[in-house]
Design goal:
With 310 residues, this protein is an alpha+beta fold. It has 2 domains: 4-50 and 150-309, no CATH class; 62-147, no CATH class. It is 41% helix and 20% strand. The strands form 4 sheets. A 5-stranded mixed beta sheet has the order 1-4-10-11-12. Strands 3-8-5 form a 3-stranded antiparallel beta sheet, with no helix packed on it. Helix 10 links the parallel strand 10 (263-268) and strand 11 (293-299). Helix 2 (34-43) runs parallel beside helix 10 (274-286), helix 4 runs parallel beside helix 6 and helix 5 (99-117) packs antiparallel against helix 6. The protein is elongated, with a radius of gyration of 23 Å.
Length: 310
Amino acid sequence: MFCRFDRKIKMKRIHQVKDKYDWYFDKFYKYLTPESAINALENCTLKFSNPKLFNDPLDCSELFFSETFESFNNKGNNDKLKILKSALLIADCLIKDDKEIANKIKSIRNKMFLYKSNWTKLDSQKANEKLLKVYNLVLSIKLDDLKRQYFICCFSENYKTKKSTLMWSHYGQSHKGLCIGFDYSKIKAENILEINEIQQFTPYRVKYTSNLQTLNPKLESSNYDWLLLKSNIWDYEKEVRVIVNEPKLNEEYIYRKFPKELVFKIVFGANAEKGFIKRISEIIIEKEYKNVVLEKMYVDFDLKLKSRIL
């Protein structure tokens, strides 16, 4: 255990990180199928997937970091040199970290040194194109390496808006499943959690963009920008992510405990069966989830998605 003063310092650091990522909401929801919901609530665990498995090729993509030829060609030689040094630094780190990646990047790194020794030739279009190709390739390899280290669990800020109907259909087995509602404000209101539990279950809002050239290549393990950026075609999801860093694991997905003290609501889909609702109600009692409100979705006469308390 740690003293109250230590907790305040660590909580302050956590909230500073959250503020950086536009964090100001408290409640977020996890859509689950009936089978997944029973497993999650019985074991207090959620599934975290490696981003390499995501169904959107632009999700956590190196394209958000890549330079276009037009923007690169318009830079002065000093800026191009900074980009080259950045790629060399990344290449050096990769070579130290992984022999397999080192073999992939060896010839690329040699090319970069060649360009550096013949810097005056970078004024030519051909040289610029070659250097840009090398730079983007290094970033792509680096990002691919980083993706192995992270696991993400996806949530939403909403469960009963107009666009939530799509979420229920896609992730709640056509309204047969449920949503688990988490209230993060309980952390601020009560000293109910250990600091490591808070760090392992901190929500971050996803940012949506239509512009691929959005980010600077700050690919440190503490920088989540590249893990929180998606194409704006997905903005109806109002996605929230919890991210864990497990560099020693080489798995497609993992399960992690969630703080059951943060569960404040269970919302059943409009098509949830009575037996499923009964089983979840029993689990809530058996596992001692406290002060949890049970709701069920329905469609009113105005064709609007609403919920009622059970």
